[in-house]
């Protein structure tokens, strides 16, 4: 669950510290380093040993790792890493654990290096308390220097330290955003100090003027900031610009690269805002275009002439149409690919085709630039389908907790999101949906993951038992998912029937089944058939979704069906909100069960003919009717 492309060194200097770090070693990319002198006292197959001093060893592996996890005194770590630190943009994440494994401290490179996030992940893995001292954490704000990372934005010029300081002081920070996703704005705490846009003035209303102490630009435009300006400024560049290229066969890389550079400079557009390159399919093997994409790590999209000639462009060419079958290559290709990154509006052609040649270089090219509504993230999305168990974090697996912390987006029913609020981190996008909008949740998760975000979809109990896992996979299937992108990982949880059973003893010791009484997704006549079959076959039966505000008769019908096949004295457990603060537990009998409160947060367990109540416990014998 740690970042897949990270190399992380975990370092301990004594056997006790080594055992604390040992659980981290099963994660790919994490190497446990120990001094050779304790090799005889440690039995950890995956550990590596160093023979020189820790100071020398640390210097030798510093450049190879993106993160360091020390189980060592913080003061000693500070002295060890001090000579190796350079700047926050390049330093690795440094995390420190105490020798009891009770606390995990983000020591260095919290934002850009990822130490804050690594701290939370390590703490979740070993059951420790994360200690993060940065202002962003206390203010519940994303670090301004990592704000755009989930969306693939690229950092531009600016005084990042000055803007970060203004945010930490809770000064007014003006944000001018004309490109890229606004999702991050929707999840800010109520008392933040950002001011969005400019004061509005109308004939009847005039907003109060503002005096910002810092400014953040989020735009495809490249701005020049005075180094001695009184107000610190920074700029993020969402990757919304699609560059369409047409060229003669054999055009040199220099011609195309210089052409793009000069066009962007002329129109004050940032190279960092380029999403990718597009052209006609007959140029898919053009050497210069391929080299450009490889050098700049840009995706290349190619389209057939029949597709491009359908696109309306401002400067069509009969000559080009005769040559390649479409009157436009650069403009049409830029607009067509940009349109695939638009939801509510058509792409904007910022730059009509420009013809470019370079003296003493072969060939010529045409360049056009279109702006998309959505940015290209350049990331492979992931879907984490998470079962949170009954709702108490003590019953939630560490893997599931880590998935929540690592996600860019967390989606779920509002009540469930409140129960896991302590796992969230600043900057996460939280989207709550009503209890009846499961399909909308699934489609939203699929869409965001295919866009390139890490999305956690939360279900109570186990996500694969009346949870969201099936719905999300169905939406992927309908969308033509290739089974690989986005990646999907399922995190099981303690199911509602398991939690309820644990609260009353051992009612599920023999064959059992689960039946949901909700007819939103299953016809009622099918549910009736299943109730009758389970009752007649003498299964211990767990009833999910037994009663809602508008659906009150189904639990009565279910009880009546079971009374046709079971003794009225059959034990029944009614468990409301197991392991939550408002937990209620009742043991009763089949004929009296409707006298007790039952709602959507209740699980009903009906015993079989061998089940019995013994004091406050419900027991189903392992051997059926005396067989052992």
Describe the structure.
This protein is α/β, with parallel strands linked by helices and 628 residues long. It is 26% helix and 24% strand. It has 18 helices and 30 strands. The strands form 6 sheets. The protein has a 7-stranded mixed beta sheet with strand order 3-2-1-4-5-6-7, sandwiched between helices. A 5-stranded mixed beta sheet has the order 8-12-11-9-10, with helices on one face. Strands 15-14-13-17-16 form a 5-stranded mixed beta sheet. Strand 13, helix 7 (253-266) and strand 14 (274-280) form a beta-alpha-beta unit. Helix 4 (115-126) runs antiparallel to helix 12, helix 7 crosses helix 8 and helix 14 packs across helix 15. The mean pLDDT is 92.
Mean pLDDT: 92
Strand count: 30
Helix content: 25-40%
Radius of gyration: 30 Å
- The general outline is globular
Cross-sheet strand order for the largest sheet: 3-2-1-4-5-6-7
Biggest sheet, in brief? 7 strands, mixed
Q: Label the structural class.
A: alpha/beta
Keywords:
628 residues; alpha/beta; 5-stranded mixed β-sheet; 18 helices; globular
TL;DR of this structure?
The protein is α/β, with parallel strands linked by helices and 628 residues long. It contains 18 helices and 30 strands.
Topology summary:
Elements lengths: L7 E5 L2 H7 L8 E6 L12 E3 L3 H8 L5 E5 L2 H8 L11 E5 L5 E6 L6 H12 L2 E3 L3 H5 L14 E5 L1 H9 L4 E5 L16 E3 L17 E5 L14 E5 L3 E7 L5 H14 L7 E7 L6 H10 L3 E4 L1 H4 L9 H7 L5 H10 L8 E9 L8 E7 L10 E6 L10 H9 L2 E5 H6 L9 E5 L4 H14 L2 E6 L9 H10 L8 E5 L4 H9 E2 L5 E5 L7 H13 L3 E5 L9 H10 L7 E6 L7 E6 L12 E5 L5 E3 L2 E3 L9
Parallel strand pairs: 1-2, 1-4, 2-3, 4-5, 6-7, 9-10, 9-11, 11-12, 13-14, 14-15, 18-21, 18-22, 19-20, 19-21, 23-30, 24-25
Antiparallel strand pairs: 5-6, 8-12, 13-17, 16-17, 25-28, 26-27, 26-28, 29-30
Helix pairs in contact: 4-12, 7-8, 14-15, 17-18
């Amino acid at each position: 669950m740690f970042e897949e492309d990270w190399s992380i060194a975990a370092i301990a200097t004594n056997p006790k510290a080594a055992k604390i770090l040992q659980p981290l070693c099963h994660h790919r990319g994490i190497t446990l380093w120990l001094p050779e002198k304790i090799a005889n006292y440690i039995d950890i197959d995956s550990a590596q040993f160093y023979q020189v001093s820790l100071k020398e060893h640390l210097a030798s592996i510093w450049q190879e790792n993106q993160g360091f996890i020390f189980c060592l005194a913080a003061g000693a770590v500070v002295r060890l890493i001090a000579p190796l630190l350079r700047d926050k943009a390049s330093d690795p994440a440094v995390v420190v654990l105490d020798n009891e494994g009770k606390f995990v401290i983000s020591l260095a490179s919290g934002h850009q290096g990822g130490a804050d996030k690594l701290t939370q992940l390590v703490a979740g893995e070993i059951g420790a308390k994360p200690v993060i001292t940065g202002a962003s954490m206390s203010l519940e704000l994303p670090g301004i220097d990592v704000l755009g990372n989930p969306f693939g934005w690229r950092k531009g010029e600016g005084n990042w330290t000055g803007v970060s300081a203004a945010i930490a002081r809770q000064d007014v920070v003006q944000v001018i955003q004309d490109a890229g996703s606004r999702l991050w704005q929707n999840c800010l705490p109520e008392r933040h100090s950002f001011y969005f846009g400019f004061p509005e003035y109308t004939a009847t209303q005039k907003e109060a003027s503002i005096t910002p102490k810092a400014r953040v630009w989020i735009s495809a435009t490249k701005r020049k900031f005075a180094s001695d300006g009184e107000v610190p400024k920074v700029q993020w560049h969402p990757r919304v610009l699609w560059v369409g290229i047409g060229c003669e066969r054999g055009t040199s890389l220099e011609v195309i690269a210089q052409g793009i550079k000069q066009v962007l400079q002329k129109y004050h557009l940032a190279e960092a805002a380029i999403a990718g390159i597009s052209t006609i399919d007959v140029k898919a093997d053009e050497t210069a275009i391929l080299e450009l994409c490889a050098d700049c790590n840009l995706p290349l999209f190619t389209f057939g002439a029949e597709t491009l000639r359908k696109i309306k462009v401002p400067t069509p060419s009969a000559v080009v149409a005769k040559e390649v079958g479409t009157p436009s290559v650069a403009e049409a290709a830029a607009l067509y690919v940009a349109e695939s990154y638009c939801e509510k509006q058509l792409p904007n052609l910022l730059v009509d085709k420009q013809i470019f040649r370079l003296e003493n270089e072969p060939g010529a090219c045409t360049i056009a630039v279109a702006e998309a509504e959505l940015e290209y993230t350049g990331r492979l999305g992931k879907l984490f389908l998470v079962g949170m168990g009954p709702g108490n974090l003590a019953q939630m697996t560490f893997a599931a907790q880590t998935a929540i912390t690592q996600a860019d987006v967390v989606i779920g029913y509002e009540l469930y999101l409140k129960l896991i609020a302590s796992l969230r981190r600043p900057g996460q996008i939280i989207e709550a949906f009503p209890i009846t909008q499961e399909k909308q949740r699934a489609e939203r998760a699929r869409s965001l993951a295919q866009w390139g975000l890490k999305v956690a979809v939360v279900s109570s109990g186990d996500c694969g038992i009346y949870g969201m896992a099936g719905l999300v996979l169905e939406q992927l299937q309908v969308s033509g998912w290739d089974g690989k992108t986005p990646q999907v990982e399922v995190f099981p949880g303690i199911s509602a029937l398991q939690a309820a059973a644990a609260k009353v003893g051992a009612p599920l010791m023999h064959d059992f089944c689960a039946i949901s009484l909700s007819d939103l997704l299953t016809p009622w006549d099918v549910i009736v058939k299943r109730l009758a079959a389970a009752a007649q076959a003498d299964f211990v039966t767990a009833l999910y979704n037994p009663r809602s505000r508008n659906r009150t008769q189904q639990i009565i019908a279910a009880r009546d069906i079971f009374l046709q096949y079971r003794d009225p004295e059959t034990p029944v457990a009614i468990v409301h909100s197991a392991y939550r603060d408002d937990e209620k537990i009742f043991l009763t009998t089949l004929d009296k069960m409707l006298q007790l409160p039952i709602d959507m947060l209740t699980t009903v367990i009906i015993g079989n003919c061998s089940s019995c109540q013994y004091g406050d416990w419900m027991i189903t014998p392992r051997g059926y009717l005396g067989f052992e």
